[in-house]
């Protein structure tokens, strides 16, 4: 403490001086010209007259607190933790609240331990370039209606949440169970609160007395608000609203209209799910800042959403600001419009510059617990037959550029359904953890794919195989390819087969980001040529069609599920 004080008083030399910058103050919303003095990884002063062992010329740029992500599933990038960090940190991100929900649903607690250990091994001149606040997933499985690779009940939650390695409880997606007073679900929440750890939420369209009940459980945040009115109501009930800027879902436009001079401190930024290509081409939280400002939000508010608001939401003291005693997590940007990041400091160490990470990721952590995770009972073309009885079939219509589906109905034949040449595709969700042989069958209307099948081993949230096509033989072959690969993305047409392997729990690749971006782009483009409409990401849209906690109609390995009824429904109404 005395050394910090002596450096602040200019009696002693600081470790680092970032010179010639304008410092953005998140407490006042103002810019202040001056140098930033850093000692022992903390800011000790802003102004002139400071001396330091090392000087860094900011060349007139704007210094902002480094960016945070309030809610992210790293696995959705399909990158290893190390490769993800090498992409995200150069974009100004030095802290994330990470929910390893996806990999834990495949590999249990060992999946979370893999993520935490891989990140912990990253170093840059003795400092970690990224703070990862690891949440314990709350919904493994997400609902009791599907088969996941692990089950974490209230008793195990109470044991695990007490560990130092878990920062809080991940998003509580099973909101019907919360408001219904389910003792097992409430036990998980109570275990986190007993340890004074935050509980994240997931509550689409929850309002009124149901929202009040959800808040009574102590749930802090929500990233599923659909309208400005819903955002305002959740804030009025004491929640933080996470504005999402991800690859598959983005509510910036709606949430921005809810922000005002009084409530802006209750909004925080998150990406939730962002793929490698978007990270590389568009950025991370810097991308969200650009979009918010372009949508009309004042930069002083946008910056707070990415920094101090997140720190205060999660009680991360001494973070989120450039001020004395705060950790020197600092990014330099060109303007408060483009947010082009030129330098990133983590506790006073230059961890990235000019778009490149200053830390090595060549040596990556391996874990047997997240290898060879795809186990299925063999399938045949007959596994995908759908028989009609002259009634009408339920079909899913995916909303363009979103995660939500609408229920629609199409005529059912008397006998076998053939979808080739129509606007229908068959959809299958195949259990892949225990080779049970479970196959859920459904229909998707308007996706556009024809002449074969595509499939992926990423399928929120239990991550069974999801396969879509208009040809039963092609669907069977895609399933076999995914099983042989141990997970990945696969495509089959009459002329071609292609597979991109995801060797980490069937969710992520151990290859470099450049390879992941190129190969996922190639196979997605091949699917696009099979007719998938431009309003859908060919594979990434598929992964949400089994997510039973987002409206309206979803397909699980045990059958078709209606979120509104919170129950299974038959494919055919006779």
Q: Judging from the principal axes of the Cα atoms, what is the shape?
A: globular
Query: How many domain units?
Result: 2
Gyration radius, in Å? 24 Å
Query: Sheet with the most strands?
Result: 9 strands, mixed
Describe what you observe in this structure:
The mean pLDDT is 96. This protein has two domains: 65-316, TIM Barrel (Alpha-Beta Barrel); 371-573, no CATH class. A hairpin with a 2-residue loop joins strand 15 (341-346) and strand 16 (349-353). The protein has 16 helices and 31 strands. The strands form seven sheets. Strands 1, 2, 3, 4, 5, 14, 15, 16 and 17 form a nine-stranded mixed β-sheet that branches. Strands 23-22-25-24-26-27 form a six-stranded antiparallel β-sheet, sandwiched between helices. It has 574 residues and is of the alpha/beta class. The radius of gyration is 24 Å and the shape is globular.
Helices and strands, with pairings:
Layout: H1 2-8, E1 14-25, E2 30-39, E3 42-47, E4 52-57, E5 62-65, E6 67-72, H2 81-88, E7 93-98, H3 101-107, H4 109-120, E8 131-136, H5 154-161, E9 168-172, H6 175-179, H7 183-194, E10 199-201, H8 208-216, E11 221-222, H9 228-236, E12 240-244, H10 252-256, E13 267-270, H11 276-281, H12 285-294, H13 299-306, H14 308-313, E14 330-333, E15 341-346, E16 349-353, E17 356-357, E18 387-389, E19 392-398, E20 405-411, E21 414-416, E22 424-430, E23 439-445, E24 452-456, E25 465-469, H15 472-485, E26 488-493, E27 497-501, H16 513-529, E28 553-556, E29 559-562, E30 567-568, E31 572-573
Parallel strand pairs: 1-4, 1-5, 6-7, 7-8, 8-9, 9-10, 11-12, 12-13
Antiparallel strand pairs: 1-2, 2-3, 5-14, 14-15, 15-16, 16-17, 18-21, 19-20, 19-31, 22-23, 22-25, 24-25, 24-26, 26-27, 28-29, 29-30
